[in-house]
Design goal:
alpha+beta; 2 helices; Os01g0510901 protein; DUF7597
Amino acid sequence: HESYMLADIEPWVPKDDLDGHLLQIRNHLQNELGVMVTHCSPHPFGVGFFIVRSTLTRDTLVEAFGFHYNGVNVVKFRNHDRGSIGGQRM
């Protein structure tokens, strides 16, 4: 479970748009940052649940300030076993 993480985005978007943002985030990680995403899915405590290939990669993404993934929104990652900090799917 060490390579699991949750994603949150700012500014918030309507609940109906979250699935599209989940795919944009995955594509940004893979295509722009070269991160191997082995799994992503919606999650009730954030935009999505992601599994990346290594713990080092996960730790780097979690420690970062965030990434502009579509020119408007910023995604921030956190460890999957940390409490919710504003999950949008609730």
